[in-house]
Amino acid sequence: MPVGIFRVCLLVITAIVNHPLFFPKENGTVPENMEEIIQKMKEREESLRLEQMRLEQEIADQEATQKALEKAASVVEETKEEKVRWDMWTALSMVIFLLIELWRQDFQEGNWQDIGGEEDDMAVLGKAFKGVAFPNKAVLASFYEKRILGTTGDMARMREMVEGFADDLLEALRSVCNRDADMEVEDCMGVGSMYENWRVRKPFVCDLIVPFAPPEPYCFRCQTWCSGESFPPDEQGYGTIKVCRADEDVTGCICDKTKLGEDMLCLLHSQVNATKPSNEMEDLLCFKNTQYLDADQVMKWFQIAITKAWNRISHKYEFDLSFSLLDSPGALKIKFRSGKSIAFNLTPVVQYENSDVYFISHFPRSNLAADVPSSTHWFLTFAVYERRFIHLVSKTLPANACHVSCLQILSFLHGKQCSLTGPSGLTNYHLKTVMLHLLQARPSQDWAPEKLEARLQDMLKFLEKCLHEKKLYHFFIGNGKVPAELGFPIVFQRAEPLNLFRPFVLRRDVYRKTVDTFHEMLRNMSALINEYTVHIPLAQTNGICKESL
Fold first, then answer.
1. Which of 146, 150, 169, 165 is nearest to 342 (CA)?
2. With CB atoms 3.0 to 4.6 Å apart as the test, which of 144, 175, 349, 513 could cross-link to 358 if both were Cys?
3. Which residues contact 430 (CB under 8 A, 6 or more apart)?
C-alpha cells in the first residue's frame, strides 16, 4: 500500500515539474507554434470564406441562367402562340378576301349591267340637269323624220358603191402580190355605224376591215392581255402577234436558235422545213430583231400594195384614188371629176384564233385614247360581234323599235355640240356602248317607237352616271350574259371588265372638258333640235317639257 501511494505521488510530482507553465523562459517555442497555427487557421478561414463566396456566386449565376432559360422558353412559347394566332388571322383574312372577291365577281356578272330595272337607278346626279327643256314626242318625231331619215337612202347607195370598188381593188392587190412570199389578203367586211344604220353626221365614211395571213409555212400566234400573262393596266385591250412556222412548237426548237454542225441533223425538222425566212419577210412583218408583227411595217406594206393595185385597175374608173391620211394604212378618198368625193377606210386586221374578234393595226384615235404601248401591240376590235348582237336583238324588239333612233339623236347632238365648243373625250363608240348596255338590260317592249322620249332620257341619265363614276364598261369583255347564239369567245367573257373611261382618271383636263361639253349639250338640246324641226302647231309644242331629266 505505501509503495502504491509513493508511486502515485511520484507520478504527480513528475507531471507538475514537466508542465510548460512552470518554465516559460526555458521553453519559448510553444507560443511561436501557436501563432503559426493561429495564422494558418486564419488563412484557412479566409480561403474557406473565399471558396464560400465563389460557390455562392456560382449558385447565383446558375440561378440567373436558369431564370434566363425559363424566360426564353416562355418567350418562345408566347411567340408560338402569337404565330398560331397570326396564322389564324391570316387564314381568316384570306377567307374573307376570297369571299369578297367571289361576291364582287358575282355582282359584276349579275348586276354591273343591270341598270334598267328601276327608274331610281337612273337618278340624276348632276345639277346641270335641273331645268333642262326636253323636247316632247312630237318635236322628236319631227326632228327624226326631217334630219335623220333622209340620210338612210344615201348611206345604202354609198355602201353598195364602196363595197364593189373595194372588192375590185383587193382582187387587184392579190394579183400584184407574191403568193409565195407575201401576205394573203382575204375578203373585206363592213363594220361600224355605216353598217349598223345609225350614222347621221356627214361626211359618211365606210369602215371596212381586211383580214390577212402570212404565206406558208408561216402562221400567226396571238396573245391577249387576258390569256394568262400579266399585262400592265395601260395594255389592257391589246395583244401581240407572233410570226411562227406552222410546224414550230410554241416554245420553239433549238435548231432555230443554235447553229448545228454540218454532220448534225435536227430530228424534228427536216432540211426542207429548215429554211429560214428571208430578210425581206422579216422586215415586212416583224419588229426589228423580234418575231412580233409590227403594225407600222404592215401599214407600209399595205399602202404600197394598194398603190400597185390601183395602178393596175385605174384605167377602168373615171375618178382618182388617193390616201387621205398617211398615218392610217387604208384611209382612202375617191375624187370624182364633178368635185364630189367619197371617203372610206380599208384597214388590215388579224383574226384571233377561229373567232370574229380581230387585231386591228390602226384604230381611230380620240382625245381620250391613250398612246399605243408600241407598234407590236395591236388593239382588239369586237365590231363584228357588236353588229351581230344588234341584229340579233332587233329580231325580238317591236316593229320600228326606237333603239337606233335614240343612238342617232344622241350622236347628232353630241357631234353638233363638239362642233360648237370643240372635241371632248366622248366618242360615238361610247354612245353605242351605252345603247348596248340598255338593250340588254331593258325588256323588249320598252323599245316600242312611242317610247323614244323615255329611252333617250335613259341613255342620257346612264351616260351622266358613267361620267360621274368615271366607269363605262366594255359591253362584251367580262359580260357573262352575252347570248350563246353569237358564239362569243369564252376567254373574253371570263376576263375582268374593261373600263373604257379609265383614261378619265389619269387625264383630269380631258375629263373636265368632257363633262362640261356634256352639260352644255343638255342645255342646248332643245335649241339644237328645234333648229332642224319643221313648224309644229302650238297645241303640240305646248307639250315641251321643262322638267329635269
1. 165
2. 349
3. 463, 472, 500
CA distance 38 to 29: 14
Q: 107-124 b/e with 16+ CB inside 10 Å = b?
A: ebbeebbebbeeeeebeb
The structural domains of the chain, ordered by start, are: 121-150+396-534 (1.10.1410.40), 151-247+280-381 (3.30.460.90)
Q: How do beta strands 358-360 and 341-351 pair?
A: antiparallel
SS3 of 157-210: HHHHHHHHHHHHHHHHHHHHCCCCCCCEECCCEEECHHHHCCCCCCCCEEEEEE
Q: How far apart are CA 218 and CA 216, in angstroms?
A: 5
Nearest to 212 by CA among 176, 188, 191: 188
For residues 257-286, average pLDDT: 50
The residues that bridge with 378 in the sheet, in sequence order, are: 239
Q: Among candidates 491, 487, 474, which has minimal Cα distance to 440?
A: 474
List residues bridging with 520 in a β-sheet: none
Is the Cβ–Cβ distance between 343 and 333 less than 8 Å?
Answer: yes
How far, in Å, CA of 169 to CA of 159, rounded?
15
Give the mean pLDDT of the chain.
79
Contact in structure between 441 and 475 (CB atoms under 8 Å) = no
Distance CA 11, CA 23 (A): 19
